[in-house]
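User: Fold both of these, please.

Assistant: Here is the first one.
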Amino acid sequence: MGESRSISETDYFLGLFLLPMSLSLEVSVGKATTIYAINGSAILLPCTFSSCFGFENLYFRWSYNNSDTYRILIDGVVKNEKSDPRVRTKDDDRITLPGSTKEKMNNISILLSDLEFSDTGKYTCFVRNPKEKDLNNSATIFLQVVDKLEEVDNTVTLIILAVVGGVIGLLVCILLLKKLVTFILKKTREKKKECLVSSSGNDNTENGLPGSKAEEKPPTKV
């Protein structure tokens, strides 16, 4: 009994320890791990953060790296929930910070304009929250700059949909045909039954039963 109680207490305190971690600072760059953009265009690199404990003087930065280059693109501070992000340093004039933390948006996305092929690489959004004892978190998204966006080939998808639709249509036709055959057989049985009843009546009449035409006439008097 004492051992099971010890284990349950351990699980309880472990749960209390993990609960704040599960509710702590989170950073997201969306569901897509890779985004594509055309050379010369502009692209929004998304990043949002959340914290159940709130934030104060939150530090953020965007960094870029590829196989042989690493640099900090932009960094700044968000004073509190009622303040917009304030940029401290910026490495590239093509970068703007259109995000807002007001109305619980917590948006520190950046807009990268006049894209070049050399902009291809990993972009990391990093956040550190002093209110959570400098707890930090980050999320990374890969940008691929291309000459043109390739059209998605939906041929296989269309073939699959056509096959599935054909199978469903065939099943519907089979069910309708089955109902039609059942209906015809039912009508045929009813008609045969009526014919048998009618035929039975005619046989009784011809066999001289009362009311039949074969009833004998009285002999003619001489």
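And the second sequence with its predicted structure:
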Amino acid sequence: MPNWYYDKKDLRNTPSSRDGVDYETERRYRKEGARFIMEAGASMSLGHNTVATGVVYFHRFYMFHSFRTFPRFVTASCCLFLAGKVEETPKKCKDIIKTARALLADDKFQSFGDDPKEEVMTLERILLQTIKFDLQVEHPYSFLVKYAKCLKGDPAKLQKMVQMAWNFVNDSLSTTVSIQWEPEIIAVALIYLASKLSKFTVVDWVGKQPEHLKWWDMFVQDVTMEILEEICHQVLDLYQPAQAGSAPSDSPPQLPPSKASPPMKRANISPITNKNSPNIAVKTPLPPLPPTEIEANPIPKHITTENPHYPYPPYPMHPGPPLPPQSHGPPPPYGAMPPTMPPQPPQTWPHYQHAHANKYYPPGPPPGRNPYYPSQ
């Protein structure tokens, strides 16, 4: 199986950086793509596992390809489309494109080209080859719940701390921690961060042994405090306000469209305006999106752990024939089958009444063996 965890030097030597995209711009592109997947997943009532799987595909894809070659929003739509099938919450490609059209501005939606469905479907084959068909992804959610059940303390404070850690896991998808550390380490680090911010100190837990110096020693061995603090700092950086003179909060439209589509299917994009563009039907301007939870509050709003499944269409079941009444016992060899009909009295040999009955058909049983064939 391929190794999907990278060092800091690998994250600064990506195909995008070799293609002229600076490190901060690439971080912003990753953040925009991950948030788009989360917003689209929430709009389509997809569960957290499906959204998280799509984001992990997104981060892995751009460790092999450049943002200049493949537009981030097309790739994000393709990752969500594939994650829905992997996590058994499938959505149609046209529904994902419709959601993307509602969430994105016109200039950004132009990167989908003349045929958005063909663009996403073609990119799906490239995505599968890029991630080497390694589709199963583990997330920190299950480890977070498992570890939290072992902690002891005030139930109200513990519930608040676990909810805060769950929100931190959601926000960590906007960073690259999912391709730097295992989900067990991420779960431990974000529980540690939530315990610090909620002022809930873990002093006792189920299965505590004398050799356990910290509560996470029972779950993850040899994890250093430097690793935990590095993960916490990457998540906390999301809540820092943008500094003056820094990178713009809104990225420009990406040019040209994705190379996933054939040349005859690519759109002729003009960077000036899109009002008179013949490629996309002009719609009424969409209202600006409200500020995200990360930018609005240091602690995100309440997010439940429910995982709504995809509402499959109610296909009618064809009723089968009614089962016959089971009056007899179990079938052989567990029991003898009852006779199908009552026993009949023995039948006597019929006598044919005709003129030569006594000569050719003597009364009594039928004759024995033919004398021309002596017994052996």
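Confidence is low (pLDDT under 50) at residues 261-318.
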